[in-house]
Amino acid sequence: MEHANAIPKQADSSKEGVRERTTLDHIIERLASMELPGKEYLEQYMHYKWRVNHKPRTMKGSFTSIVLFLTFYGASGKSDITRLERSDLDAFIEHEQDRGMYISTVKVRMASVIAFVHFLMEQDILSPLLLKKTIRLKLPETLPRAMNPSDVKKLIGSIDVVRDRALILLLLRTGIRIGEALSLTMNDIDLAEKKIHVLEGEKNSMGRVVYLSGDAVFALKRWLAVRNKENTFIFSGRGNSPICYSTARSRFFVYLRKAGLEHKGYTVHCLRHTFASELLNAGMRLEVLQQLLGHRDIEVTRHYARLTDKTREEEYFRAMAIIEKGGIHGDY
Q1: What is the per-residue pLDDT across 3-56, written as a single tens digit (0 to 9) for each?
Q2: What are all long-range contacts of 261-269, with beta carbons under 8 Å and residues at least 24 apart?
Q3: Domain covering 149-311, topology
């Protein structure tokens, strides 16, 4: 006779020959369909995390963060994870912040990426010197950082290499992302119409059109006149590959130093923020700016663009003049 408080036996969910699918199974299945640099090492790392009994939620979060990083690394024109550099980690941090991620989210993602890097170092796949210095995430301002107009002039005045001037003016005058700029080919640019067609994904032809200012057109024409015509990409590096993100980023910092602006905390993504803020202050409607920046959510655009004190003052008195004249009609 069974005891009254006895716990009823659970049905055996694992019938002979059938095993319940685990978190690791789902992760490995997803990974199998991906093309990523260092894919085999990520699989090894996931098996390691499973063996040491990491929680399913932890494994899923770690997997997502590392996939984002490896996707970014590959999009930067790199395929060999054993050649990972410190600048690649720094560039990923900037990239995530440029996408509007909260600093807390970036910190969580970087913790997963750095744990993966430590695993690769323990396996002698990466040099232990890679993380000799601690990676520190600086808390950004409430609003994204745009360059002051006087600093923009100093920066442009310091650029003495034709290719670099064309790239930096392109970023500043179109607001396109650095990855988008480095992926441009001659088929994407129409100098006569002062337009650029920016693809939003490698696997589709969807995109947006951005426009070129006069100084950007002039700088691009100078560069196109001397670049190797056999190269596929507008801004080519070694061989027929585009300049990688870390190279473009390092060139930007060269000119910051030449202009005496290295202490300002500017990054290459500040050019995109500057573009947005300048157009907003010049009177462009937010929904138009949203299309140029390629944002699906207008709130992201609102977060990007900063109004100057002068613009706010002018807008206030323009609106108040209408109110004082009794120009508001109808019911609320």
Answers
A1: 444 434 444 444 444 556 799 999 999 999 999 999 999 999 999 999 999 999
A2: 261/151, 261/154, 261/155, 264/147, 264/151, 265/138, 265/145, 266/145, 266/147, 266/151, 267/94, 267/145, 268/94, 268/171, 268/178, 269/94, 269/95, 269/97, 269/98, 269/144, 269/178
A3: hpI Integrase; Chain A (1.10.443)
